[in-house]
C-alpha cells in the first residue's frame, strides 16, 4: 500500500514538473533541423507536452510530441528566383549576403511559415503554453508567440554567438575578438580587422533594428491573432528573452564572456546519437582498410554544380589514391571509371564520420558538419563557400587539424598537395583527436545542458534574475557616459584650480620681487 502511494506521489510529482512547450523551428534547411530537432524530442522524452512548428516532419511515436507542419518550400521558390549555383557565392561580401539572402529570405520565409494552413489553424486554437522556444534565425515575428501565450521566451541559434542579441541584451561586446557570425575576417584582432568589425556590427545592427524588425513586426500583426493590444516592439521582446542557447563551445570557438542566460550547447545533436550506419555502408567502410575520404558540401551546396574543370580535378586526384571515396552527389549523370568512388545523393554524415577508417572530410565548412568532424576527431580539407564557413575553417586550420582550399584555387595540383599533406602527415589526426577530446570534456553533455536550462527557466518562471540588470539603465548610464562626463568636469575643475593657484603664486612672488627691488 505504501509502495503504491509512493508511486502515485512520484507520478504526481513528475506530472507537476511537466510543462506545455511550444517549439518553433520553421526554417526548412536540413542542417538546421538536424541540430534543433533533438532538443524537442528530448523534452518530449522527459515527459513534457511538446508542440513543434516545423518544416520537416519527424517520424516518432512519442504521443506527447505534436507537429504543426509549415509548407515545405526552398528559399528560392519563395523568393521567386532561379536557384543560383551556390558556388557563385564565394565572392559576395557580408553586406551583400545579408541584403540578398538573409533579410529578403528571412521575411519571405517568415511570411510563408505564418501563412501555412496548419499554422493558421493552430494559431486560432485555444492553447496554453508554459514556455515558447524559438530558433533565432531572421524570423523574429515568431517571438510574439511568447506574448500571445504569456510565457517566457527561449531562443536557440544554429550558428553560435549572435551579435545582435549581444547588443540587445547588453552582453559585453568584446569587439576586439568577437565578430558577427557571418562576417569573414582573416585577422579579426588586427587594426583593420577590428575597424571592419566595428563598421559591420554597426551596419548590421542599424538595419536590423530600424528596418528588419519593423518589417517582422508587420508580419506578426498580420498573421498572429490574439496578440496584446499594446505589443512591445520586437526589439524589447528580444531584450527580455529569458535564455539564449548558442551552437558553439569554447573548446573550438573562441573563449568569450557570456551572461548567465546565454548558454553554449555546441554539439547538441551528437549527444545521444544512437543511429547506426545502414548495413551496406557499414560493410563498405569496414572493408576500406586503406581508409576513406568523405566528400560533402552540405545540404545547400551541390557538388554536381561544380564547374567542369574543378570537378575533373577532383576526379583525377581521387583516381590516383588508394582510399575509398564517398561523395555526396546530387544527380545521376556523372560517369567515372574509378572504382574507388561511391556516389550517393545523401549520406548519414555523423555516422560515417564516426567510422575509424575515415581519414579526411572534404567539406564546405558548415558549422554542423564541422562539429560532427570535431566530435569524431576527423581532419578537414575545407572549401568555404558562404556565411560562417570561412570562419569555421579558419579556426580548424589555426588549430592544426585541417587546411583551407579556396574555391578559386581548386585545381589538380593544389588538391593533390593538400590531400597528400593531410593524409600523410599524422599531426592532423593527432590535433583532430585532441580537439575532439576537449570538445567532449564537459560537466554535462550539451543536450542535457539544453534541457536543464530550459527546465530551469520553467521552474523559475522566466528566471528574470538571470537577465542583465544593465537592461534597466538608460543608454547613457549603461555606457557610463554620465560618470565619465562628471569625472571629466572634476578633472577640468581641478586643472583650473591648479592654474589659478599658479597664477596667484606668480603674482605674489612678482609683487615680492618688485617690493624687494624697490627697497634696493
Ligand atoms: C498538449 O499540447 C497540445 C497542443 O499541441 C494540446 O492540444 C494538448 O491539450 C496538450 N496536452 C496536455 C496534456 O496539456
Ligand atoms: C497565403 O496563403 C493563401 C492560400 O493558403 C494564398 O492564397 C495567399 O496568396 C498566401 N499569401 C501570401 C502573402 O503568401
Ligand atoms: C597504393 O597501394 C599500393 C600497394 O599497396 C602502394 O604501392 C602505393 O604506394 C599506394 N599509393 C599511394 C598513393 O599511397
Ligand atoms: C519579460 O519577461 C517576463 C517573463 O520572463 C515577463 O514576466 C515580463 O512581463 C516581461 N517584461 C516585458 C517588459 O516584456
Automatic annotation (TrEMBL):
SUPFAM superfamilies: UDP-Glycosyltransferase/glycogen phosphorylase (SSF53756). One of its GO terms (cellular component) is membrane. It catalyses: glucuronate acceptor + UDP-alpha-D-glucuronate = acceptor beta-D-glucuronoside + UDP + H(+). Coiled coil: none annotated. The keyword Transferase applies. The chain crosses the membrane at residues 475-499. One of its GO terms (molecular function) is glucuronosyltransferase activity. It is an enzyme of class 2 (transferase). Residues 1-18 form the signal peptide. Pfam families: UDPGT (PF00201). Keywords: Glycosyltransferase, Membrane, Signal, Transferase, Transmembrane, Transmembrane helix. It is found in: Membrane. Its EC number is 2.4.1.17. The keyword Signal applies. It comes from the Eukaryota. It is a single-pass membrane protein. Belongs to the UDP-glycosyltransferase family. PANTHER family: EG:EG0003.4 PROTEIN-RELATED. This is UDP-glucuronosyltransferase.
Amino acid at each position: 500500500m505504501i509502495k503504491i502511494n509512493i508511486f502515485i506521489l512520484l507520478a504526481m510529482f513528475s506530472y507537476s514538473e511537466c510543462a506545455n512547450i511550444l517549439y518553433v523551428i520553421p526554417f526548412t534547411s536540413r542542417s538546421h533541423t538536424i541540430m534543433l530537432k533533438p532538443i524537442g524530442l528530448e523534452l518530449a522524452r522527459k515527459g513534457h507536452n511538446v508542440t513543434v512548428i516545423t518544416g520537416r516532419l519527424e517520424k516518432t511515436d512519442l504521443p506527447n510530441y505534436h507537429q504543426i507542419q509549415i509548407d515545405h518550400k526552398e528559399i528560392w521558390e519563395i523568393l521567386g528566383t532561379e536557384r543560383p549555383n551556390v558556388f557563385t557565392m564565394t565572392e559576395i561580401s557580408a553586406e551583400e549576403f545579408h541584403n540578398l539572402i538573409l533579410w529578403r529570405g528571412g521575411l519571405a520565409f517568415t511570411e510563408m511559415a505564418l501563412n501555412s494552413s496548419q499554422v493558421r489553424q493552430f494559431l486560432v486554437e485555444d492553447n496554453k503554453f508554459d514556455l515558447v522556444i524559438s530558433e533565432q534565425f531572421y524570423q523574429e515575428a515568431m517571438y510574439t508567440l511568447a506574448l500571445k501565450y504569456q510565457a517566457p521566451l527561449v531562443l536557440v541559434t544554429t550558428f553560435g554567438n549572435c551579435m545582435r542579441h549581444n547588443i540587445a541584451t547588453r552582453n559585453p561586446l568584446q569587439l576586439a575578438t568577437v565578430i558577427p557570425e557571418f562576417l569573414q575576417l582573416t585577422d579579426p584582432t588586427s587594426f583593420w580587422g577590428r575597424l571592419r568589425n566595428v563598421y559591420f556590427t554597426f551596419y548590421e545592427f542599424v538595419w536590423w533594428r530600424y528596418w528588419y524588425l519593423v518589417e517582422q513586426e508587420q508580419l506578426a500583426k498580420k498573421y498572429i491573432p490574439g496578440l496584446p493590444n499594446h505589443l512591445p516592439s520586437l526589439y524589447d521582446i528580444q531584450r527580455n528573452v529569458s535564455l539564449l542557447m548558442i551552437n558553439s563551445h569554447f573548446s573550438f570557438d573562441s573563449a568569450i564572456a557570456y551572461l548567465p542566460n546565454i548558454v553554449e550547447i555546441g554539439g547538441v545533436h551528437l549527444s545521444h546519437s544512437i543511429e547506426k550506419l545502414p548495413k551496406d555502408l557499414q560493410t563498405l567502410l569496414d572493408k576500406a582498410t586503406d581508409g576513406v575520404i568523405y566528400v560533402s558540401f552540405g545540404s545547400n551546396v551541390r557538388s554536381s554544380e561544380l564547374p567542369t574543370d574543378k570537378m575533373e580535378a577532383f576526379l583525377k586526384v581521387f583516381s590516383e589514391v588508394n582510399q575509398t571515396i564517398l561523395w555526396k552527389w546530387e544527380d545521376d549523370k556523372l560517369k567515372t571509371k574509378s572504382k574507388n568512388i561511391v556516389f550517393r545523393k545523401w549520406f548519414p554524415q555523423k555516422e560515417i564520420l564516426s567510422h575509424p577508417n575515415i581519414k579526411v572530410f572534404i567539406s564546405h565548412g558548415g558549422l554542423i558538419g564541422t562539429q560532427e568532424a570535431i566530435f569524431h576527431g576527423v581532419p578537414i580539407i575545407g572549401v568555404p563557400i558562404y556565411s560562417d564557413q570561412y570562419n569555421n575553417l579558419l579556426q580548424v586550420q589555426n588549430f592544426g587539424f585541417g587546411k583551407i582550399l579556396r574555391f578559386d584555387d581548386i585545381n589538380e595540383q593544389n588538391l593533390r598537395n593538400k590531400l597528400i599533406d593531410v593524409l600523410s602527415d599524422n599531426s592532423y589526426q593527432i590535433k583532430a583527436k585532441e580537439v575532439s577530446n576537449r570538445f567532449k570534456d564537459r560537466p554535462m553533455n550539451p543536450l542535457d545542458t539544453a534541457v536543464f536550462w530550459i527546465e530551469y527557466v520553467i521552474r523559475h518562471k522566466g528566471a528574470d534574475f538571470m537577465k542583465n540588470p544593465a537592461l534597466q539603465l538608460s543608454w547613457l548610464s549603461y555606457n557610463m557616459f554620465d560618470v565619465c562626463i562628471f569625472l571629466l568636469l572634476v578633472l577640468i575643475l581641478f586643472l583650473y584650480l591648479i592654474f589659478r593657484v599658479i597664477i596667484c603664486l606668480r603674482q605674489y612672488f612678482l609683487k615680492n620681487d618688485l617690493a624687494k627691488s624697490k627697497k634696493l
